[in-house]
Amino acid sequence: MHFLRAVLATFFSTGFLFTSADAFLSLGVWNRNPRPYNLSLVPRSGISPRSSHHKQCRLVLGSNNSQGAPQGPSQGPSPSQPTHAPQPQPTQTGPSNGVIHVASPGACAGIGATINVTTTTGPNGAIDWLNCGVDSDGWNPAYVTVDDIVTKDLATVLAQDNSAFAPCAPYLDLFNKYSKQYGIPTILIASFAMQESTCNPSTIGGAGEQGMMQITPDKCTGAPKGNCLDPDFNIRTGVHYFADTLKSNGGNVLLAVGQYNGWYQGLTYASATAAQNTSCCHCQNNLDYVHQFFNGWCQGVNAFDAHMGKYFNVNVCGS
Ligand SMILES: *[C@@H]1O[C@H](CO)[C@@H](O)[C@H](O)[C@H]1NC(C)=O
Ligand SMILES: *[C@@H]1O[C@H](CO)[C@@H](O)[C@H](O)[C@H]1NC(C)=O
Ligand SMILES: *[C@@H]1O[C@H](CO)[C@@H](O)[C@H](O)[C@H]1NC(C)=O
Ligand SMILES: *[C@@H]1O[C@H](CO)[C@@H](O)[C@H](O)[C@H]1NC(C)=O
Question: Which residues form a coiled coil (predicted)?
Answer without folding.
Answer: none
